[in-house]
Write a structure and sequence with these properties.
Elements: E1 2-3, E2 8-9, E3 14-15, E4 20-21, E5 26-27, E6 32-33, E7 38-39, E8 44-45, E9 50-51, E10 55-57, E11 62-63, E12 68-71, E13 84-87, E14 92-93, E15 98-100, E16 108-111, E17 116-117, E18 122-123, E19 128-129, E20 134-135, E21 140-141, E22 146-147, E23 152-153, E24 158-159, E25 164-165, E26 170-171, E27 176-177, E28 185-188, E29 193-197, H1 199-204, H2 209-224, H3 229-239, H4 243-254
Helix pairs in contact: 2-3
C-alpha cells in the first residue's frame, strides 16, 4: 500500500494496496479508495467518500461525506473501458456529489483548481471544468460541457450536453442552459437569456473601469443593436480594443451549438 507515513487512514476505511495516498492526507471513516487511484498531499476525505478506479487528484482537496468520484458514465453506450477523472488542487466538493469519468476509452473528465462545488449535484462524463468556479447546490452538468474560469453557476441550473459557458459569467438559479453562453455576462430565465454584465463577479476579479466599459460596449453591440451576429462581431473588433472583447469574439466564433442570443 503506497500510503505516505504522515497520512492518516481510519480503521474502517478500505484503501486498495494499489492506491497512492500523499503526505498529511486524511481518509475518514468508511471511505473506499479503489485501485489505480492517486490522492495528493493535504487532502481530506470525510466519512463515506468513494473514490473509484482511475481517479486522480492533486493537493489540498476537501471531499465531503457521501461523495462519489470517478463513477461510471451515465451513458448506455459505455462498456466499462478504462477512462479517467482528473481533479486538480485546492477544490472543495461538498456532500452527496457525483462526478463521472470519461465515456470513450482513455478519455477523461477534468476538474481544475480552487473550485467550490456545493451539495447534491452531478458533473457528467468528459466535462472540462476550469478554475475558481462555483457550482451551487442541485445543479446538473451534462456530458462534454466546458466551463471556463471564474464562472458562477447558481442553484438548480441544468446545463445541456456539449454546451460551453464563458469566463466570468454568472447563471441565475433554476435556469436551463442549452446554448453556449459568452463570457462576462449574467444569464437568467427558464431558457438562459442575457440580462447584463456580471458586474459583481467582474469587480471581484479586479477588472478596472476601462475594462468594464469595454465589456459593457460589447454587450450592447452583441445584444442590443439588432445586428446579425457576424456584423456584431466585426463591429466589436473594429470599435473595442480590449483583451476581454477579443476573447469574447473568439468564444462566439468557436461556438458549435450557437450562442444564447435573442
Amino acid at each position: 500500500m503506497l500510503i505516505h507515513p504522515s497520512a492518516r487512514v481510519a480503521a474502517s476505511a478500505r484503501v486498495s494496496p494499489e492506491a497512492l495516498i500523499g503526505p498529511n492526507t486524511v481518509i475518514g471513516e468508511f471511505c473506499v479508495v479503489e485501485a489505480d487511484t492517486s490522492i495528493g498531499a493535504d487532502c481530506l476525505l470525510e466519512p463515506y467518500v468513494y473514490v473509484k478506479r482511475w481517479t486522480s487528484m492533486g493537493d489540498r482537496n476537501e471531499i465531503s461525506a457521501g461523495t462519489v468520484l470517478g463513477s461510471d458514465p451515465l451513458d448506455k453506450e459505455f462498456n466499462g473501458e478504462r477512462s479517467y477523472l482528473r481533479i486538480g488542487s485546492g477544490n472543495k466538493i461538498r456532500e452527496h456529489y457525483t462526478i463521472s469519468r470519461g465515456t470513450l476509452p482513455e478519455s477523461a473528465t477534468q476538474i481544475g483548481d480552487e473550485n467550490y462545488i456545493m451539495t447534491s449535484g452531478h458533473v457528467a462524463h468528459n466535462c472540462r471544468i476550469g478554475n475558481q468556479i462555483v457550482i451551487a447546490s442541485c445543479s446538473l452538468v451534462a456530458g462534454y460541457v466546458e466551463i471556463e474560469d471564474q464562472v458562477f453557476i447558481s442553484g438548480g441550473v441544468v446545463i445541456h450536453q456539449f454546451s460551453k459557458i464563458g469566463r466570468l459569467s454568472m447563471v441565475a438559479g433554476n435556469t436551463r442552459v442549452n446554448l453556449d453562453l459568452p463570457p462576462y455576462f449574467m444569464y437568467a430565465g427558464h431558457n438562459a437569456r442575457p440580462i447584463g454584465l456580471n458586474s459583481v463577479g467582474l469587480r471581484r476579479a479586479g477588472l478596472m473601469r476601462d475594462d468594464l466599459a469595454a465589456i459593457k460596449k460589447t454587450f450592447r453591440i452583441l445584444y442590443s443593436e439588432r445586428l446579425k451576429q457576424s456584423e456584431a462581431l466585426a463591429r466589436i473588433e473594429r470599435e473595442v480594443q480590449s483583451e476581454y472583447a477579443a476573447h469574447l469574439v473568439r468564444f462566439v466564433r468557436a461556438s458549435r451549438r450557437g450562442i444564447c442570443r435573442p
